[in-house]
Every structure is written in structure tokens, then in C-alpha cells.
Amino acid sequence: MLVCIGCAALALFVIAPSAFASSAGGCQLQGTANFSPGLNSSSQAFAYNFGGTLSGCQSSESGAPSSGTVAAGQTLSEQVKNSITGATDTVTYQEPVPTGSGGCASSTTSGSALVTWLDSTHTVLSYSTTGALAAVNLSGSVVATMTLTAINPPAGDPTTFTITTNRFAGDSASGLLAFQPPEPAACNTPTGATTAAISGAVTLSS
């Protein structure tokens, strides 16, 4: 059952990373998801974040990157211009935090994920997942932008930061992923599984 919980988050990130342009292709995903509160035998609402790497990407699109990173619900540091001082400041921005409902036996999630490719291009994905036991089905699509919210910005710094998709625009994503918590027995505790490794293959197509 614990596996099921992790699966939902895993699927979410996996879907975002496909590097397969407007035809077909795939990447291998390796990453870690963190849940709050932890997942256990009870059904409940939860939030989570995810970070991982994409490798071995293959695509029929000439010049498509072979690797990248994927993240959801994490923070990013960006350099922005302060409208008061004119100086360039480094501000921390929060990605939208994915949410879900369920527990170890079954779960559903939805959110947005940001893929940053080896060539510094970006793909923003909107996705949803349905998980049962160790398997999670993910479906989603590439969207135009992701807007991040500043965390305690100095006066004059932008309160939001927008990242625009500039690779694989308009594509759809799908994936079947596997989830593995470090302590499978955590699913049977009040605290539940608060973290899990995720791995699998994903595809992106037009």
C-alpha cells in the first residue's frame, strides 16, 4: 500500500520530463518525492514536492536534449531587477505546490511540473495522476507558462516570476511509474510515509 502512495507523486514528475518533441520519445526518471502530511492507511488530503533527473532521453526531433531535471513544488532562486534601487537582486520564488487525496492503497494528485533541459530550455506541464499500489498512471499536457510566487521579497522586487515553455509546446504526456518508500512499514504508522524514491519511463507526443 505504501508503494501506492509514492506512486502518485512519482507519476506526476515523470510525466513532465519526457523529452520527445512532437513525435515520440522517452526519458528515464529518477527522483524523490516528499509528502506532507505523510501517507498512511487513512485517506486524506496532502501536498508534496518533487525533484529528479531525466536521462537517456531519445527523440525523433533533431537536436532534442538527452537529459534534464524536473521539479514540482520546489523553490528557485532568480535574479531580478529591483524597481526602486535599480539593482539586480537574487530572490527565492516558490513553484506551485501539487496536491492530492488518498493514502497508501489509492490516491489521485494534480499539479504543475517544470522541466529544465540540458540546453536550458523549459517545458511546463500540467498533470494529474491516479495511483493504485505500486503503479501510477499519469496524463497531462504541456502548457504555456508557470508563475512562481516570491518568498519575502525586498520592497521593489517582483512578487511573481513567470517561466515560459520554449520546448515541446502543445505536446501531451503520459507515463507509468513505480514508487519506493525507504521504509515500507511507514504506511502502517500514524506519521506515514513522508518521502519516497520514484523511477520509471515517460513519453511525450503531439
Question: Topology, please?
Answer:
Layout lengths: L1 H14 L9 E15 L4 E16 L8 E5 L2 E7 L6 E7 L4 E4 L3 E12 L4 E11 L2 E9 L1 E6 L9 E5 L7 E9 L12 E13 L1
Antiparallel strand pairs: 1-2, 1-13, 2-3, 2-6, 3-7, 4-5, 5-10, 6-7, 7-8, 8-9, 9-12, 10-11, 12-13
What Rg is obtained from the alpha carbons, in whole angstroms?
17 Å
Number of helices: 1
Please give the share of residues in helix.
under 10%
Low-confidence stretches: 1-23
Number of strands: 13
How much of the sequence lies in strands comes to over 45%
Would you tell me the overall average pLDDT?
Answer: 85
The profile of the biggest β sheet is:
9 strands, antiparallel
Gross morphology is globular
Distance between the termini: 34 Å
Return the structural class: mainly beta
Total domains: 1
Order of helices and strands: HEEEEEEEEEEEEE
Question: Key features?
Answer:
disordered N terminus; globular; four-stranded antiparallel β-sheet; 13 strands; 206 residues; mainly beta; 1 helix
Describe the overall structure.
By secondary structure, the chain is mainly beta. It has one domain (2-72, 98-141, 165-205). The protein has one helix and 13 strands. A hairpin with a 6-residue loop joins strand 4 and strand 5 (88-94).
